[in-house]
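Example 3.2
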Amino acid sequence: MDYDVLVLGGGIIGCAVAYELSKYNLNIAVIEKEYDIADDVSFVNTSIVYDGSETSNNVMAGLEYIGNILLEDLCEKFDVPFKRIGALRVVNDNNGVVKLGEMYDRAIRRGIDGVYLIEPDEVYEIEPNINMEVKKGLYSQNVAIVAPYDLAIAYAEVAFDNGVNFRLEEEVLTIQNITKGFRVVTNKNKFMCKVVINTIANEIYINEQGIVEEKESNNDVNAFKNMSYILIDDNYENKLQRIVTKTFDKDTFVVSTPILNGGSLIGIKSTEKTSLDDNLEYAGNLLKELNKGNINNLFRESYDKDSIVVDDTQVDKGYISVIGTHYGKVTLAPAIAKMLCDTLGHNLNCTLNKNFIDKRREFYRFREMNREEINEVIRLDDRYGKIVCMCNNVSEGEIVDSIRRPLGARTVKGVKRRTGAGFGNCHGAYCNEKIIKILSRELGKKITDIVDDSKNSNVISGRIKEFKSI
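Structure, written as tokens:
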């Protein structure tokens, strides 16, 4: 066997699974088709950590509750930004009041502490800048925000340091059941393994020939609505300090989320695509005096439903799949990883790795350091004294480190997501060219070979004219 376990998919769940499994004496590999891991995480790098009170699915609620508890300790250990800021859900009609009452009763039945049904004056005391007449509010002090990309990278780096092999740019073509294991064929290699954990599956089954096949799901697991996002500048005066959600109907809501490095993210979910003016109108239900001048960026994503399935019905054959996706997958990831690890640890009868390194390699966040610390670092390496991103105060030393670390950046977006460079008000206009030059130098590639995010996304297509000398 080439590996004991193959994890298919290097997203947040795949990285969490790799980390948990690396605690055991197992030979593990992660197969990811993209240039980088955690490609399923939003570029804003702020995600809500749910507590299980908002979802109608009891199984998802249980996993969210566990994940919420696990994440705080994990983030402290990995030095990943995490803030427990609380969340408000507000309504201004009688039907909404009934719905909030049902959610509150459901949270109580599930044993979730720290959830309160509150009156309008209490809502305004918590969030005085809300721009609406409130009839009732539901407040959870458990809800937090986390940097999901930092978390995924931390999971992967620790797993890598404990021997997990990350195979990037490999797409799985076929999975076949063989005696005591599986044969997995990618676009580059063929592997034999005892166990396959598929974190990118749709509904699956193993046919009579032992081939793992996908079939169309009949339960609407992967259905989604459109989600539009507005990124608001940090200098906007009336921003909200907590996560606040205003629901219009079962298909439409607007949510305001503070961002870890400043500013706010406004999400608008609807059944139809909305224009900028539509989104501003929706956002105006929560935020006072918001206008186009406050907008830093715009983007659109799918909104995943609240159902995900961990299918271990084929575990006796060595196959486990995580089917579908979920809007709270960052919250669910540690709980799912723990569950899968416990199942496999029992089935494979494996032993704990006594030499397990449960610590992430240290690095510098220049913008979080004081003047004395900055001067000390610059004395050690003068590249930390060369600022590349003026908006977010990111130095050349940080960018070089992000490339040279385990599973280091190989793309422009890989550098940006690891360091925060290029995510300021200028959107990379000042630093993009510098990042490309540093990548070219560190990777030993031509500038024209540097890609933005994936294959065929070259940033510079070619030179206008070649000179032998100047």
